Structure formats: C-alpha cells, structure tokens
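Researcher: First entry.
Model:
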Amino acid sequence: MARGVVLAGLALAPVCIGFAGGEACPGTQPGEAARLAAYVAKKYHVPPEAGLRVERVEPVGDACYHKVTFRGDGALGAYQLILYASPDFRFLSSDVLDTRRDPWEEEQEAARKAMAELLEGEYAARGSVDAPVTVVVFSDFQCPYCKRLEGLLEVEPMLKPGGEARLVFRHMPLAQHDWAMRAAEAAACAGFQSVGAFWAMHDALFAGQEGLTAGNVDGKVREMAARIPGLDVATFGVCMERQMSLGAVIRDRELGTRLGVTGTPAVFVNGRQVDGIRDAAGLHAALAGGCGAAGRCGGLARSLVIGGMENADPVAAR
C-alpha cells in the first residue's frame, strides 16, 4: 500500500513520493557517505577544515527514507547537521513529512524529546521541579540582548517564588565575543559551590556587562566573587585558574548547537523554541502558552496583560 511522504526544504521543490510498503529498502552503496558529505560541503560552502562527514544513517519508519546525520568542527565546537535522503539517496531535504501522522502529535513528541535533552546533566535552575512550565534559556553574558531578556525574566510573575514556571540556565558563549567564555566559566565555577552563588554571579555579570573587557574579566570576576556571601574565593580562584568549569560550559554549548541554537538569547518553553520575544507581554504569553489547552496553570498565567513592562526593542537577535 502506498504511503504518503513529503520531502520539504533545502531549496528543493516539495516532492511527494509513494512507496509500496513491504519491499526491501536499498542500503548505502560503497562511497555513498563520502559522496553525500562532499555534496553538502560544496552546496553550503563548508570549509575543508570543518571535516564534514556522515556520522550515521538511520531508517525513517518503514518508508525507506533515511535520516542522515553529518558532523563537522566549527567555531563553536563540533556540530551536527541532519538531513533526510530519498530511498535512492538522490534527493536531500531538511525535513520529511509523514502525512499519516498527526502534525500536532509530532510536535508534541519533538518537544518531549527536546525537553529531555534540555534537562540532562547538571545545570542551574530556580523554581519548583513540579512547575507545569519550564523555560530554558541559552545565554551569553557579553550579549546585550541576553541582558535585556534577563531584565524581563526578573519581573515575570510566573517566575516569581511560588510561581508556575521554572527557569533553567544554559551557557552559550558565542565565538565572536572575546570575554564571554571566561564569564561563563566564572558563573559555572560559582555554581560548583552552590546554586545561590551561581545566580549571584549571573546577576553580577549582567549588571557589570558594560565594564567588562577581555583584558579585565579575570580580575573583575574575582571582585564579584569576593562580594558573594558564602562563596569560597580561594576555591573559586583555583577553579578559574585551572579552567575546571570549561567542560561544563562546552557541554551546554554543544547541547544548544544540537538543538539548533544559532544565536542568543535562545528560549525554549516546555521543549519548544520560542522566537521573537520583544517585551514582557510577549514573554508572559510564551510562558502562559506552555500551560497547554488543558489549563494546567492558574489565573496568573492566563492573564496576558502586564502593565508597565513593555520594551519596544526586540530582545532576541536572530
């Protein structure tokens, strides 16, 4: 029986192809992976030093389409690119749409998978783990738009103590920012001592953003650390000197890259990436939308009118 599948995107016209189920699916031919990697590198002008290669090829359902994962090395570290290939590996697309699956159910499944990845490992968070809404922010302490978003998060009612949303912070220092990585390491080093110390360093870094430079960041973060109650400054200094938190920052950045983060700030609400948050009302609407149609949140979340919080400038730089 023919099964409807649509290949869409990547400058290809959408192609609907019927596949007769039950026939044997063709496998990859010798040299196929190298040919695909060479094509994609040439198509998207990937520099040779990135070493783009096919990491794995997986079947998509029972329709003989293939999910092809490419891997390369870029300015933000290792990255992945996922494309879908037709049964004969001739056509590539950024997505494959199964017309026999409900789109809403697919979105729900994708959000659940993303949420599971976003909450893997160690991270700084505030709010109840039982909150119906979890907002994950990938941020860069040198990014002015991230500082602006932080101001909106601070006044968001759903993120207040006892509110209906939980905030998770993930590091995403961008390569073009010359002190962002050291700032992220400082926040992570503080976080190794306590969650409270992380948030205190987080707040201090954003508050002092304009005065930080690549030349003074190490000295400045030590001054900030000395003002954090309960933080062991000597232990913090050793952590910074030995770059003991670098691995944690890189893991966050690699997670963001896998999930398609290309700029900061990047906001995920219950596993769905939310773009275009411009002001407090927009942030509140995004968080309230995470409550779902079943109305898992109370009246505070459903009220989308917040007086006196609007900021006309866009928060996210895409």
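Researcher: Second entry.
Model:
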Amino acid sequence: MITTVLCGAVLGLGLFLLMRALFPPRPGLTARLAALDEARDGKGVPRAPLIAPEEDVSEFRRMLGLRLARFYAARGWEARSVKADLALLGKSFEGFLATKLLLGVSGLLAFPLLVGWLALMGWGVSVQVPLWSALVVCVIFFLLPDAQIRRDAAVRRRDFRHAVGAFLDLVSMNLAGGRGVPEALMMAVAVGSPVTTPGALNGTVNSTVNGTVHGMANGTVHGAVHGAASAGTTGAANGAGPAPGANWAMERIREALANARIVGITPWQALGQLGDEINVDELRDLSAALGLVADDGAKVRASLTARAATLRRRELAEVEGKAGERSQSMLVAQLLLCAGFVIFLSFPAAMKMLGA
C-alpha cells in the first residue's frame, strides 16, 4: 500500500513539473513594470562578454545547451557563481548544462544493468533496489560537473589573484613614470606576454621574461614578479602564435583590455566587467581606483602598492594555513600508525593472558 502511494506521488509530481515546464506561468504586472523600468534605465541590458569561451562543443551539445539555457532564463535561474567559474575556466554555460543532463541520463542506465546482473546471478532481489540505486547514481552523475567546476575554479582564481597582485605593482610603477591610465595598463599587461617572432621551418623560440618589482607599503616590500612566458612555438614562414604555456592570467586581462575598445568602454571599466564575469573582487577594486584617477585625477599609486602588498600577505597566510593543516593531518596519521603498531605487538600477549 505504501509503495503504491509513493509511486503515485512521484508520478503526480513528475506530471506537475512537466506541465509547469511546458506551460510556464505568466509574469505578474509588478514584474513587467520592473522589467520596463530596468530597460528604460539601461540596467537590464545584457552586456557582451569580454572573454569568449575556449571550449569546443559539438553541435548536438550546443543545441541541447541552448535549449537548457533558455529554460534557465525563462525561470529566472541566473546561476551567477557557476557562470563566473565557467568564464574563469574558459568553458561555455551551454556545454556545461548539456554535460550535466547527459551525465544524469547516463546514470539511469545503471537500472537495466543492475537488473540484468541480478537476474544473471539468480538473486531474488526486488526491483526497488536497482531502481533506487540507479536514481542515486543519476543524482551523483548530475552533480559531478558542479563539483569539478568548483574545484578547478578555486585553483584558477587563487592563481589569478596572485597575477593581479603583480599587475597592481606594475600599474603603480607605470603611473609613477608619468604614463596615463590606458598606457599604464597596456604596459603592465605586456609583462608575461608570449613573444611572437618570425621563425624558420620547425624553429623554436624560447623567451623568458623575469621582472622584479620593489614596492613601498608600510616599509620595504620586495615582490618578485616572474612573468615566465615560454613562447615555445613552431616557426612557420610568416611567424608563430602564442604558446599554450603562456601566462594565462595576463592573457585574460590583455584580451579584456583589447576587447574594451570594440565593446565601447574604457579600459578600467573593462577590468571591472572582467572582475564581475570571473568573480574576482580585486579587479573590481582596481577598476574603481583607476576610474578615480581618470575622472578626478586622484593619486592612487601608493594605494595600489599597498593593495598589492595586502594580496601577497593574504596569499602567504593562506599558504601557511594549508601547511599547518597538512602538518596536523600527518600528525594524526602518525598517531594512528603508532596505535596500530602497539595493538599489533600487544595482541598476542593479551590473547595468551585471556586463554590462561
């Protein structure tokens, strides 16, 4: 009786969700008026992304992802954190949604496989066991891309913040040299860029750029900026392109600054938009500070140097914290090993005493 009620409830819920998906509710009058106000003020106009995704998606996955993206947009599911992580990794939101759906559907294949295996083994197990197992596998497969994207984006965001700290020092040095804001940004982002030179056939060009930045922030701060851009390229008759081992963070900033002229915004606004796209607060702060320099002529060179020093201190604190966690985990492992060894030595004597 309970099983029948549960199956009926699941079936009714599925039909309800299907009807809601096929026939979405109309937005109310308040929502429509708010949308009109945003469109009139220019707040609701979508901005063109400064960085194009680098992922190659098949036609089937792209079409499926577009439909799923429209489904998300129709229901107001923005998924900002996921989009920021995907933009940082150079992947498309449509391909991510298609991957999630295909993995979830493939998890349902565990049901016929389990049923066939149980029938082959001759075990009299109810069909509910492989059914619930297949549902659990489906949910796990559906959530796997989220976990992978979140883990990879955390690593990339940490590396990007490290590059932003060096970028802040370089911008403040160029501002101190008398350059304007656009020139300071372009000169700063040129550090770590791969060198493109004409080469002969099967030629290899290796270029290493090593810079040292000395900043003053509450004392003397020596920050070594290693813009090691190894542009190992195979030379064609007319030259070669950038190598895949180049400084990817500087490449992202350089691409955003180059596309700012096409989009029609200032370079510091492009940095702020890039910070919004990949969820890096340091780029937003840099955009606001450089906007003050361009608009009001504010002196922010010392502030930029202090922010770079703060970034380095925070990174050093994070590294020290992770080192302490690993030391504690190693200590726990050693204690467990010692406890096992003590049990191994005392077990024979204890058994003899109990037997006597």
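Model: Note on the second entry: The chain is about 70% helix and 5% strand.
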